[in-house]
Amino acid sequence: MGMRWPTPLIQITAVSAEQTDNIYDALRPMIEEGRLSDLIRRTGEDFVRLPGGGRIDTVTSSAQSRLGQRVTFVPQDEVGLWTSQNKMTKVADTQYRGLAGMGGRASLTTNAWDPAENSVAQQQYESSAPDVYRQFTQAPRHLSYRNKQERRKIHRAVYEDALRDRGGHIDLDGIEAEAADLLERDPGQAERFFGNRIVRGIGAWLPDGLWPLLPEWLPPAPDGTAVSAAFDGSENSDYTVIRLETLAGHLFTPRYGPDRRPTIWNPAEWGGRIPRDQVDIAWAEIDDRYQLERAYCDPGFHDETSWESEIEAWAVRFGAERFVQWPTNQLGRMYSALVRFVADLKTGAITHDGCPVTGVHMGNARKIAKTADRYVLGKPSPAQKIDAAVTSVIAHEAAADARAEGWSTAEPDNRVLVFR
Fold first, then answer.
1. Contact criterion met (CB below 8 Å) for 95 and 67
2. Which pLDDT tens digit goes with each residue over 103-143?
3. 331-347 vs 387-404: helix axis angle to the nearest 10?
4. Beta carbons within 10 angstroms of residue 54's beta carbon
5. Res. 63: pLDDT tops 80
6. The domain 226-404 is classified under which CATH number: 3.30.70.3340, 1.10.3380.30, 3.30.420.240, 3.40.630.30?
7. Which of 36, 143, 294, 358 could bond 150 through an S-S bridge, CB–CB 3.0 to 4.6 Å?
């Protein structure tokens, strides 16, 4: 007995009707002028009725009445624009549940997304689910989009067989003209749209490229290295992070325990709450492994989730002169630290280990305007964390303050002098 295919129930989905038309307006003549015209007698403006009770519908953010219905196939267009703000994340989740119940599939298409927006495209690309197939053409990362000759190489790489000189329909000179014009107004958008690169848009804290994404996560500094440290504590929502900086200005995430776990704790990986005993173990190993000059620690809120008691205990255990409470909610001090951090990144005074979590958090961080032209860091959505970025800033502030007070590689003089 042959396989029985389910009745086709298709929802062409996008943020706007104009985007659904990109697919639907191309589909209709394929049906009307192709072999399917004998089976599908009529195509409407909003939907197509298929034999056996099937349908092809269009769904947008403003027309969600069909959500929750049975569905077997969903083309989702421009999912790089699908965010919680325009309610398209909810649309996607509803459709995925419907597909799961029917054994269906979704096909997602998009230009490169802004990594500060936590779009459906970003979520699916970063998903660890084994049944997600990704096709994402990239030009070599060393090519600069601001260099005209290298930009042309990028365009040739990402447009491939769609270029006219390869038999396609894309005019390379036309793409260059549009890209160069947009580059002057919104460099991030130009590189995302035409260069197919994941770069941050306007409003991001750090300009793209100032915190370079390294090809690999470098190992932590060797045992015995002199370091300053920072700690940002949370309870059950944000991450808890320890980052270190060497005297030479190298920021890195240390490892602890027999399996050498990084000192970045995501509550979702620990039953919904930060494992405070693990943080305590990590500090003990850091104190034993490195020459710890000082540690600036943000205790968090002044409530039952605060880390004030733990910080006070670490000060007693490891040295009161080294463990200092450093709340990040003090605007003047935090703004000065952010300004110094950016300035030192630009001059090359800061290097880093390529910690992937920190890289994501740096990309998520946005400027939140405050009084007197100052700012603090914020996140685009609750799901997009910035804790490792904030901790890096505090670690650099601890190291910078220590250097200003005479921190050096000179070993303390522990000789005992006997006078007769």
1. yes
2. 899 999 998 988 777 889 988 988 878 888 998 888 887 88
3. 80
4. 15
5. no
6. 3.30.420.240
7. 143
